[in-house]
Every structure is written in C-alpha cells, then in structure tokens.
Amino acid sequence: MKIAIYPGSFDPVTNGHFDIIKRAAKLFDKLVVVVMVNKSKQASFSIDERVEMLRRVTEGIPKVEVDSYTGLLAEYARERHACTVVKGLRAVSDYEYEFQMALANRRLNPNLETIFLPARGEYQFLSSSAVKEIARYGGEISYMVPKIIEKDIAERLKIK
Ligand code: COA
Questions:
Q1: What is the pTM of this model?
Q2: pLDDT of residue 92
C-alpha cells in the first residue's frame, strides 16, 4: 500500500492546499494530510481547530485521512509507513527551501522521497498568511478558502 503524507501548518487550509490534496489523493492508495508545527511561525488557529477544518474540507474525498503531529516529519513518516511526502510548489522562490527540507528529511529517513506538485496558476499568490490578513480587516476571502469553512474563518479572525 503506497501511503503519502501531505504536511503543512494549514493555518488555515486554503484552496491552494485543497487543490493539492485532491490531486495527490489520486496518485496514492492513501494520503495523510498532517497538521504540523512550523517553529518559525506563530499560529492563529489551534492544532485541533486546524484538524477540524481540514476534516470538514476533505470529507468525502476518498483515501484522505487527517491527522496532527508535533514531532519531526521524517519520524511521523516512519511511524505511518509512508514512502512519500507531497508538497506544493507555488513559485521558483519556494524551491530552494523545499529542496533543503526534502534533503534533510531523506537524511533523517532514507526511505522517504519528496514529490512536488506545481500549484495552479490562480493559487500561486495564495498563502495562509494572506487569508488571515484579509480576514482580519473583513475583506473578501471566498476565492481563497473552501466555502465550507469560509464563514468560520471570517468570524474567528475579524477584528471587532
Ligand atoms: N497553494 C497555496 N498556498 C500554499 C500552497 C499551495 N499549494 N502550498 C503552501 N502554501 C502556503 C502555505 O499556506 C504557507 O503559507 P504561510 O507561510 O502564510 O503560512 C506557505 O505557503 C508555506 O507553506 P509550507 O512551506 O508548506 O510551510 P508550512 O508552514 O505550511 O509547513 C512544515 C511546514 C510544518 C511542513 C514543516 O515546518 C515541518 O515539516 N515541520 C515539522 C518538523 C520538521 O520535521 N522539520 C523539518 C526538519 S528538516
């Protein structure tokens, strides 16, 4: 069984992530979307909230499971018997950082390969930070996040 992991902060999940999830799920027997901690970022949503949003968004997509983990990605992959990490690449500027991460992860877990899926053009300038910034000021985020979580994000982040 070929298991892949799609890791990220998902703070919150965006349409760009959702697109990668749908495309990656077609390539493997199982895709585990895992909320992880990026130590360089201050999260706005708790891990449980992020998992819950991802579960709602991915409900009904076959072969997709949502989980969270606060340790190393390479270790999680070992525990789950996953052979592949899936990452989305938005632009060439993402590449250097992602390349380093892929090499570090493979050093930590030699059985782990990373594959990159190019983000769709309309999502190339999308990020979770942009969603949060716009939502804080009450701006339009409907084109940025899945409809099912749009209202919750807007209400949760809007500065009152
Ligand atoms: N479309 C639109 N936006 C996308 C996207 C896509 N397809 N893919 C990523 N993004 C956005 C994300 O929302 C994120 O936005 P933000 O910076 O505003 O939060 C940004 O691009 C960067 O995404 P990514 O590079 O995936 O970073 P991340 O913080 O979401 O995830 C972890 C990084 C959690 C996977 C990484 O820190 C990790 O593996 N942590 C665990 C500890 C570990 O193993 N460390 C590595 C040791 S080598």
A1: 0.97
A2: 85
Residue 35 contacts by C-beta under 8 Å, 6 or more apart in sequence?
8, 9, 10, 47, 50, 51, 54, 66, 67, 68, 69
Of ligand 1's listed atoms, the one at least distance from the Cα of 129 is 18
pLDDT tens track for 60-100? 999 999 999 999 999 999 999 999 999 999 988 889 999 99
- Pocket (CB within 6 angstroms of ligand 1): 7-9, 11, 14, 16-17, 20, 36-38, 41, 72-73, 88, 90, 101, 104-105, 119, 123, 126-129
Q: Which of 5, 9, 54 to mutate to test the pocket of ligand 1 (most atoms within 8 A of CB)?
A: 9
Query: For residues 87 and 102, what is the distance between their CA atoms, to the nearest angstrom?
Result: 9
The per-residue pLDDT for range 120-146, each reduced to its tens digit, is 999 999 999 999 999 999 999 999 999
Q: What is the layout of strands, in order, in the sheet containing 30-35?
A: 64-68, 30-35, 3-8, 84-89, 113-118
Catalytically annotated residues: 17, 41, 90, 128
Question: Does domain 3-121 match CATH 3.40.50.620?
Answer: yes
